[in-house]
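Entry 14. Structure prediction run on the chain below.
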Amino acid sequence: MKKIIFAALAILPAIASAQTGKFTIQGKLGHISAPAKAYLQYRKDGNIAVDSAVLQDGKFTFTGDAGTVPMSGYLLLNKKGDGMRKSRDYHSVFIEPGTITVTSPDTLKSAVITGTKTNKESAELQVALKPVNDAYTALEEKQKNATDAQKEALAKQEKAIEKQEAAINKKFIKEHPGSYLSLSALQSFAYSADYTDLAPLYEGLSPEIKASTGGKEFGELLPKLKAVALGATAPEFTETDTAGKAVALSSFRGKYLLVDFWASWCGPCRMENPNVVKAYNKYKNKNFTILGVSLDRPNAKAAWLGAIHKDGLTWTQVSDLQFWNSKAAALYGVRAIPQNFLIDPNGKIIGKNLTGGDLENKLEELFGKI
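Output returned:
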C-alpha cells in the first residue's frame, strides 16, 4: 500500500560546505517543435520555482542559480504548449551546479538524465529499481479486478516487492555513503525499517552528509526511532478524545493495544480501515483494543468525526488536530501514515506497521485462530 508521507518536491539535504553555482539543463527530445513546451518545476528556498521553454527541433534549455542545496524537481512536456498543469509526460530531475543533459527520441518519461553527480546516481538507482517499479505496476493492474479471495495473495506479493525495494535501497546507501540520494533513501526507508537497521546505515554515511541540514535532522530523529523500536517501552502520551476527555496511553496497560496513526484526509488510511475494523471485531474480546490517533488538521474536527462514523471505527479515538505537528506523532517519529504500533499488556512494542493481513496474522499468533 502506498503511504502518505510528509514530503512534496522534497529538498535533498544541503552539505554544510556547499557553494552556490549555476545550473544548465540542455534537453533534446527527438525533433519535437513549437507549440510544444517544456516546463521545469522545483522547490527553492521554501518556494515553488517554475520556468518554461519552447522546443525547437527537440531542443530546450533552462538556466538558473542552483543555490546551496541540490533540489529535486520535475521536467514536464506539453506538446500543445497550453500549460504545465495539462502535462502528462514528466521526469524527475535534480537541480545542482553544472550542466544537466536530457535526451530521448520522443518522451520525457523515457529520457536519460545525466551530467551531474546526483543525476548520474539517480539514473543508477532507477535502473536498480526498475524490476521493483515494473512489479508494482503489474500488481496494481491485478488489484483493480481482484476478488476478495485473490486480495490476500496479492497482499503477500506486495510485501515481497516492498522487501525487494528495501534491499535495493539498503545496498545503494551502503555503496554510496557520500550521496545525497543515500540520505533521501534512508529517510524513506525509515518508515518500514526498525532502529536496529537504520542506525548502522546512518553511521555509515560520510561526515559531510551527516553534517548536512537533512543529515542533522535525521540524526535528531534517530533517538525517537530508538524509543519506539521493537522491544522498547512505548512512550507515554495523553491526548483528548472526540468528547474532549483526556486519554492517556498508560490507561490501556494490561491489554494488547494497537496505536493506529491515521487521518480523515489520508486515502491509504481510509483504504486500510476495513482491515483494522475486521481485526478489531474479531479479537476485541481477547484482551485486545485499539487507540486511534488522528493527524487531522486544525478546525477539521467535523471531518475527523465524519470519517470515524463512516468507517465504523468504534474504538477510542484521540487527536490534538495539529496535522503533521501532532505531538503524539512527533513523539513516535511518525512521518508517514497509515502507521501503527502493537503494544503488549506490559507496555512493550511487539509489532509495527501491521497492515493488510499482517495485523490479523499477528493477532492470530497471539490469541489463536478464531
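The two ends are 26 Å apart (CA to CA).
Filed with the rest of this week's runs.
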